[in-house]
Amino acid sequence: MFDRTPRTNRSRTRAATGPAPSRRTFLKGLGAAGAAGVSMAHLPLDAEVAGAQGDGRSLVCIFLFGGADSFNMVVPNDHAVAGQNYNTYSTTRGEFAVPRASLLPIHDGAFGLNPGLPGLASVAAAGQLAVVNNVGPLIRPTTREDFLGSVPMPQFLFGHGQQQKLWQTARPNVSIDDGWGGSIAAANTAGTLSPAFSIFGSTPWLASPSLNYARLSATVGIERLLGYDASLRSWIDSFEGLQTSMEAGLTAADASPNPFDQAASTSLRRSVMVTEELEDILDNTDVGMENINPRSLAGRLEVVAQLIANRGRLGQQRQVFFVGLGGWDTHGEQADRFPELLAEFDEGVTAFQGAIDRLRVADSVTTFTASDFGRTLTSNGDGTDHGWGGNAFVWGGAVNSGSYGTFPNLTTTNNPDDTTDERGNFAGRMIPTTSVAQYGATLARWMGLGEGQLDLAFPELRNFATRDLGFMS
């Protein structure tokens, strides 16, 4: 297991953590039969789209677990539409309203970012930030009357785990296990290593019936994560002649008429090869993210930057990454906890985007946010509760800067965008005006999926008149 401490303190010796040259030679000698996560049935990129796109692209999902209060991340500032202006926002949000004077203006001043997001504001100033307003899981365009009536709704609204899954699969029910990130990854046809990586454990977003994804960590060694058992490594290092006997055994398994023997050989070869390749990349690729805590969002994003820097070496025309940041379930102590969460998020954004700029790949890397749901506009006395729609951010050199979708009405009286009950009680839960399917399809199209593939990945997309929100160039 190799060290993932901050780079400035990281030892360069490999005596205890890295392979001896003879072992590396042996491992490479196992053959180039592939690496973990090889797809046996690729979904090819749309030929015309792929031909026009040229070089590689990378898509990075930052999932804010717990339900981020995104209506306090981006705030109407000088927005003139009734019900969507700062005064209405301030009245509704009460004690949690962000002071207008502290907002960081974006998009010609119509909206402002929370003052805890100066790094994201710099991205906006560079013309590379899109805000997608009031997005969430939907089956079809939905009104308050639909919500109060008998029109089918996505399952388990306002529930953490269920809504996380609906966001990541873009489906209205939790029985579906495959994610739209996995659909994008399966469209990759270059190379043998899966182009899908999670730096936050297992995730439905990258699940696919035809492609595996690699689970990596900024703090845990690759051998453990990819199933390269430590005892196997010890044996390879310690026993003379094992290289020859193992290679002989694997060669015999390859030639065996038994498909189980062949599969076992292929699996071991893949595990060893991908372990060596990724270990070398993560241990020796410096993307300039100095003094980063590997347990922070920035630490996880450093792993992403390292893999993006090596996408040519990995033979990956397209890459998709899943990164998480938890703690956003601010039922209590929101006044103290929310600024801390914003600080970690913004630090990660700033450090990561700086690395991407230094690598000169900003035009081919797009990062976006997602979360379980938005939170209630009203206070519960010490925090906010589970909502539905919320705002999302998309940034990168290929992003068309601006505000997309419809920002909801924030008034507490006769609000058409709120899940107000039959008695007229204001709930402060915004009914999404943009669907996850529309949001995800806009990103997936940029990554090379054709219209037919989009319909497979996002079955509810056909229920919406607007299939592309326009925030990607």
Can you describe this structure?
The protein is α/β, with parallel strands linked by helices. It has one domain (42-228, 270-463): Alkaline Phosphatase, subunit A (3-Layer(aba) Sandwich). It is 34% helix and 12% strand. Strands 1, 5, 6, 7, 8, 9, 10, 11 and 12 form a 9-stranded mixed sheet that branches. A 3-stranded antiparallel sheet has the order 2-4-3, covered by helices on one side. A hairpin with a 4-residue loop joins strand 3 and strand 4. It is globular.
CATH level 1 name: Alpha Beta
Mean pLDDT over the residues: 85
Tell me the structural class.
alpha/beta
Termini Cα gap: 41 Å
Largest sheet: 9 strands, mixed
**CATH architectural grouping:** 3-Layer(aba) Sandwich
Beta-strand percentage range: 5-15%
Low-confidence stretches: 1-54
Helical content class: 25-40%
Number of domains: 1
Number of strands: 12
CATH topology: Alkaline Phosphatase, subunit A
Integer-rounded radius of gyration: 24 Å
Q: Could you state the order of secondary-structure elements as H and E? A: HHEEHEEHEHHHEEHHHHHEHEEEEHH
| Number of helical segments with 4 or more residues | 15
Shape field: globular
